[in-house]
Amino acid sequence: MTAWAARLALVPAAFALLAADDLKPSDFAADARSIETIVNEQYAYLDRFPGGRMPMTDKLRAEANAVSTARELVRYSERALALLADHHAITGSSTKESWAVVPSYSDLWVERQGGDYVVEQVRADTPASQAGIQAGDRLVSVNGVPFAMAVANFWADLGTTGGADRDAYAARVLAAGRRDRPRQLTIQTGKAAPRTLTLPNLYYRNLLDRPLISASEKGQELVVQIHDSLGNEATIQGFDRVMERAKPGQPIVIDLTDTPSGGNTTVARGIMGWFVSKPTFYQMHRLPAEERESGIARQWVEQVLPRAGKHHSGPVTVRVGRWTGSMGEGLAIGFDAIGARVEGSAMAGLLGAIYDHRLERSGQMIKIPTERLYAVDGTPREGFVPRYKMQR
């Protein structure tokens, strides 16, 4: 399944549960227990955890043994993957009350600063931005629970504790909320009195109901914005049509600040191919699972090639932010490798490339980062930060 198809599967109307009439309760429990093994064999970032093993808890192991239906298996899979504190580890099925997928369906990027949870960025044209929430605001509570307590409760419910980056992960999930209900957030701006807001989650609207690409002339520049469509191969043709109207040598700005759901390398290479005149390395891959199994490391570098009859020699600027995710991040490091100016902030920091892993008995799917990805200079993709601040 492509990343685009995976994204479509997460739209709230599409949460069909996979179950066959002849499956027994013990089959669902067996699949639940298998998730720990799959993660320990296939997850590319086990070095994030003590002992290089999935941080499974006794509470979740007991829950696995009690799973007896397809719906319970979906819920368990979501809870088990949450232990990874990895926004790129998701399930192929979901329920209406599942947590929103971050960053695709989130509008607040939250970081922990000491004991506080602070908004770092607000996604444009969302309930949060329309309510006046801004960078620097502090999250006081969520659904009436003090925010730090809500984060602690998130981890306690899974039988573990948080800390540092794990707490920031939980905070972003809590701020995005459940798919089937609004969020109640209490926000404090500076020393002003806290204010409580009830905001719809981002599943209330069809985020796919937008153009794939929009373009406009701003001064001398041709600004091309990708609207979360890096997994749709029609984006290549849309980009081609825009570039065909570019003037020779015209500065091009490619705005990737609205690409949280990733995509695939076909689209990425189709875009970058306009700006190279020879085969050029743009991204490095590593497959830890093969090394674990065979003892032999596997690593390779991917190239972008020129596209016949499609070339632009003008300067290129790429804009990124917290809602630049997965393949959007791959485009950013790729453009950096081919000499473009990449500007903005840290991106979503989504780990690696996700592979589909089918649970043997039920057929349900979990999706976890199985390849590690790097810039061509060896910088982990999730650690890449633009050298330049955003210029408007």
Written description of the protein model:
By secondary structure, the chain is an alpha+beta fold. The protein has helices at 3-9, 25-42, 58-66, 70-82, 127-130, 147-156, 165-176, 234-244, 265-272, 288-294, 327-337; strands at 90-91, 108-113, 116-122, 138-142, 145-146, 183-188, 195-199, 213-218, 221-226, 252-255, 280-286, 299-304, 316-320, 341-344, 353-358, 365-374. It folds into 3 domains: 3-91, no CATH class; 108-204, Pdz3 Domain; 213-383, 2-enoyl-CoA Hydratase, Chain A, domain 1. The chain is 28% helix and 22% strand. Helix 2 (25-42) runs antiparallel to helix 3, helix 6 crosses helix 7 (165-176) and helix 8 runs parallel beside helix 9.
Question: What is the CATH class name of the largest domain?
Answer: Alpha Beta
Q: Could you state the CATH homologous superfamily of the largest domain?
A: 2-enoyl-CoA Hydratase, Chain A, domain 1
- Helix and strand succession? HHHHEEEHEEHHEEEEHEHEHEEHEEE
Q: Please estimate the helix content.
A: 25-40%
Tell me which CATH architecture of the largest domain applies here.
Alpha-Beta Complex
Strand content: 15-25%
How many strands in all?
Answer: 16
What is the mean pLDDT? Answer: 92
- Which structural class matches the secondary elements? alpha+beta
Q: Termini separation (Å)?
A: 37 Å
* Low-confidence residue ranges: 1-19
Number of domains: 3
Shape: globular
Number of helices: 11
